[in-house]
Amino acid sequence: MFEGARKQRIKMTFVLLPVCILIVIICYVYGAWARAESEKQLVPRLAVDSMVKGLRQYQRQTGQFPGDFSELDKRIWKYKTAPDFGSTKRTLLVANYYYVYAKTDPLTCTIWAIPSGPKRDEGSTHFLVVSPGVIRHWKGPALGKADIDRISSEPTAGLLNVLGMTEQGIIDQRSVGKTRAGLF
What we know:
Elements: H1 12-42, H2 48-62, H3 69-77, E1 91-94, E2 97-105, E3 108-115, E4 124-130, E5 134-141, H4 145-150, H5 157-162, E6 166-172
Antiparallel strand pairs: 1-2, 2-3, 3-4, 4-5, 5-6
Helix pairs in contact: 2-3
């Protein structure tokens, strides 16, 4: 009936094989990217700069530092749903950092920033003494649970040495004026 060359049909398997290979490659790349992003979320990220900014703003408005984080939240942060500040209202967990706040006198407060979570060893522990114009800053290795129990809102130089903390220098913001460099 029909003479001549028959039309070649592409077999369905030749079409499906490249499509399946492409889907496998896309799924593998997406899975690797998603794993990397979830791992990145576990690394502690320090947020003490914004915390100090809020504390300083509170101090300028009231003439003293807040007694705890709930006072800071009511006046400065104003979260719609307040975070869990712990039973003492002086602790906060943000971005895999555990913060411990203490007001030592009306014009001085301290902040411990301790890395937490499964990748806590990738972070550094920070201790700050904040006053209206000056910040003293110590930095050291991530603290273990036993060391965390030993911290104090007013640690001695000996305790800071035992914990491996070294002073990073004094940040004098009285001479900086309106331009403000980051803490870290």
